[in-house]
Amino acid sequence: MKLYKYTDLSEQRIEELCLRQLADDTSIAESVKDIIGQVKTSGDQALKDYALAFDKVNLDQLFITKEEIAKIASTIPDDARTSIDTAYANIKKFHAAQLIKEAKVETMPGVSCWRESRAIERVGLYIPGGTAVLPSTFLMLGIPAILAGCKEIVVCSPPQKDGKTNCFLAYCAQLLGIEKIFLAGGAQAIAAMAFGTASVPKVYKIFGPGNRYVTQAKQQVLASGMTAIDMPAGPSEVLVIADETANPAFVASDLLAQAEHGTDSQAILVSTSETLINETIKQIESQLNDLPRAAIAAQAIANSYAILVESKTQAMAFSNTYAPEHLILATDDYQELIPEIINAGSVFLGNLTPESAGDYASGTNHTLPTSGFAKAYSGVSIDSFIKKITFQHISPQGLAAIGPTVEILAAAEGLQAHKNAITIRLKSSDGY
Fold first, then answer.
1. Is residue 5 part of a domain?
2. 218 and 298 inside one domain
3. If I label 315, which of 37, 155, 194, 282 is the partner at 20 to 30 A Cα–Cα?
4. Do 55 and 209 meet the contact criterion of CB atoms below 8 Å apart?
5. Could you tell me the residue range of the domain that residue 49 belongs to?
């Protein structure tokens, strides 16, 4: 892990450190463009071809049914079932609290305005499954989609070696009432949901995290105008702000937890204590040896870095420029730092709040903006699955009150028909 001193960094160098662009990003964009083109042209056959090429699975059918899901789900270990049930309850409780009905507003006598929520009718959920099984993502996306009232939920996840799905995803599907899982992963799954195939329905909005191929595919289908997306979400990242009160072993475990997601993940440490940084690096080396995904985590750590700052003001300034997906405040005075947070996907406060708690079961959503997009995007919530439609109603009293204002403004803009729409009503005998 490289070490920088904040005071030695120019503004340009700080901006460079906050970039997530890697050397092969251009080649990935070209590869994804080709994959999308193949799926648009060949549909189901392209999905089967990519399953064979990437997942080493020869698929006869691109989905598993309700009956197959039930059979697979029945094999889940009891402790895993209990843990998923707990996570489900916490995530549902947190997201249900977001269902708020807005009040009507009378902007002037006789003029009423309000907003009502409508669920997006058909949504696509991408559940990664390449190097790790992620039932937690299924819950994070499926629960708010159902609470929002989405009528059709299309789920895509890479096939396992047996051409099916695993017991954890199958059990989540049962909990959520999902009766079909489409066996497609990567950029090809995003393309299938964006454009539709004979088997996979076209959706109106695509959700879910993924690797650089998945994120690039989401951005390309958004640019094509064919479908909306939740946000650019992946590769994963964490930024830890720690001081002398932090536990180096805890900090190291948080950095490694993010690093094991993938070789292109980033784990950034910003600290006011050089001793804390050095001790954390030692802990990383010690803990790394015990990880089954040590090779992946080690490569991610090699592409990560630590920054020594003189104050927490400098730490927060760097964090807001980096705009992390996950921000951990490993300090005793975290409450004082909260008002200074401007850009972050999700924040974890204090030395006993690891990011992994939010990944699985605390209740907040773990599908979050990455690559600096936390400057403009929020994480997935109920709002992600709904549209807000505005309504207005004008009574005769309201028309008399607001009419002259609209007439004058329409005339000022040279839009006579707009003015006439008011004038003709004001001159009518009954006023409406």
1. no
2. no
3. 282
4. no
5. 25-230
- List C-alpha distances in Å: 298 to 192, 258, 356: 34, 11, 19
And the tokens for 189? 């799954």
pTM for the whole structure: 0.94
Tell me how many domains the chain contains.
3
Q: Which residue has the tokens 């005339």?
A: 411
Identified catalytic residue from 95, 237, 261, 326: 326
- Give the Cα separation of 306 and 255 in Å (integer): 11
pLDDT at position 395: 95
> For residue 250, what are its two tokens?
């805890």
Report the distance separating Cα 384 and Cα 367, nearest Å: 11
pLDDT in tens, 69-113: 999 999 999 999 999 999 999 999 999 999 999 999 999 999 999
Q: Is 326 a catalytic residue?
A: yes
The whole-angstrom separation of Cα 328 and Cα 318 is: 14
Same domain, 401 and 347: no
What distance in Å separates the CA atoms of residue 365 and residue 379, rounded to the nearest whole number? Answer: 7
- Within 232-273, where are the H helices? 248-259
Q: Calculate Rg over the CA atoms of the chain.
A: 25
Is 393 known to be catalytic?
no
Q: Is 40 exposed, middle or buried (0-12, 13-18, 19+ CB in 10 A)?
A: middle
Query: Active site residue: 325, 366, 393, 418, which one?
Result: 325
Give the Cα-Cα-Cα angle 375, 377, 378 (nearest 5 degrees): 115
pLDDT of residue 20: 82
User: Per the omega criterion (within 30 degrees of 0), is the bond before 404 cis?
Assistant: no
Q: Does one domain contain both 274 and 133?
A: no
Establish if 6 belongs to a structural domain.
no
Question: Which of 308, 244, 312, 313 shows the shortest CA–CA distance to 7?
Answer: 308
Q: Which H helix or E strand runs over 346?
A: strand 346-349
Helix intervals (H) in 310-366: 312-322, 334-337, 355-360
- The amino acid occupying position 263 is T
